[in-house]
Amino acid sequence: MTPLLTYFDVRGRAEIVRLILEETATPYRERRVDVAEWPTLKPTLLFGQLPTYEDGDLLIVQNHAICRYLARKHDLQGADEREHIRCDIVEEAFVDTLNSLGRLYWDPDFPRKRGEYEATTLPDLLAKLQKLFEQNKGGTGFWVGDRLSLADFVAWHYLDYVRPLSPRMLDRFPRLGAFKLRFERRPRVDAYLNSERRPKTLTVAGACFGGTPETS
Q1: What CATH number should be reported for the domain holding residue 12?
Q2: Tens of pLDDT, residues 103-159
Q3: For residue 61, what are the β-bridge partners?
Q4: What residue spans of 32-139 are helical by DSSP H?
Q5: pLDDT in tens, 18-55
Q6: Are residues 95 and 151 in the same domain?
Q7: Count of domains observed in the chain
Q8: Residue 174's domain spans which residues?
Q9: CATH code of residue 168
Q10: Residue 139: is it exposed, middle or buried by C-beta count within 10 angstroms (0-12/13-18/19+)?
Q11: In the Cβ-directed half-sphere of 26, how many Cα atoms lie within 13 Å?
Q12: Fewest Cβ atoms nearer than 10 Å: which of 79, 111, 196, 203?
């Protein structure tokens, strides 16, 4: 049976999963949960969280467990143990930075905190990420080794979350900006990003930022 991805009708945590499935030309189905359904659905889930991914009799919960499963299945974790470790390091770095940005987007005090975050916190994080990127062949290609890995999907996803907050920020970090452009020009990724299949918003309407097409 075709795998089933269950999540809200937003990009959010499921977007990395979608990108991997699209890039690897993996057929999949989606159940997009309406926010009104959530109070009833939430108690039925092991950790009360989405996304979930069903592949035959395999049910996977926890977003990055899904991503790592797909990375193993499609040989997206590097060529050897050193590259596996590098992939894990990059992934965890972006988990931290995306969580930081997500907290800002949901913060009720977002309008007041936005300026300081954009002026100070965000550039500091991006400088560290660009330095991490440059450790692999000067930051001129992929995040791990010489070919696509899970790290590239996770990196692009975070950088695309930065875009609506600070559209010109990546001009200050040319290695990161060039990587983002290269990744989104991959034919299958480009086709997905410009398709009606892609959700219109980063997150649900209740967020202080990212819950409307204009802030996504």
Answers
A1: 3.40.30.10
A2: 999 999 999 999 999 999 999 999 999 999 999 999 999 999 999 999 999 999 999
A3: 52
A4: 38-41, 63-73, 81-106, 110-116, 122-134
A5: 999 999 999 999 999 999 999 999 999 999 999 999 99
A6: yes
A7: 2
A8: 81-186
A9: 1.20.1050.10
A10: buried
A11: 21
A12: 196
What contacts 127, CB < 8 A, 6 or more positions away? 173
> Does residue 123 contact residue 176 with C-beta atoms inside 8 Å?
no
* 50 and 105 share one domain: no
Residues 12 and 62 in one domain: yes
Q: What beta strand segments (E) does the chain contain?
A: 4-8, 29-33, 52-55, 58-61
What is the separation, in whole angstroms, between the first and last Cα of the chain?
33
Q: Which helix (H) or strand (E) holds 157?
A: helix 150-165
Instruction: Write down the pLDDT at residue 13.
Output: 95
Q: Are residues 170 and 199 in the same domain?
A: no
Asked if 197 and 117 sit in the same domain, the reply is no
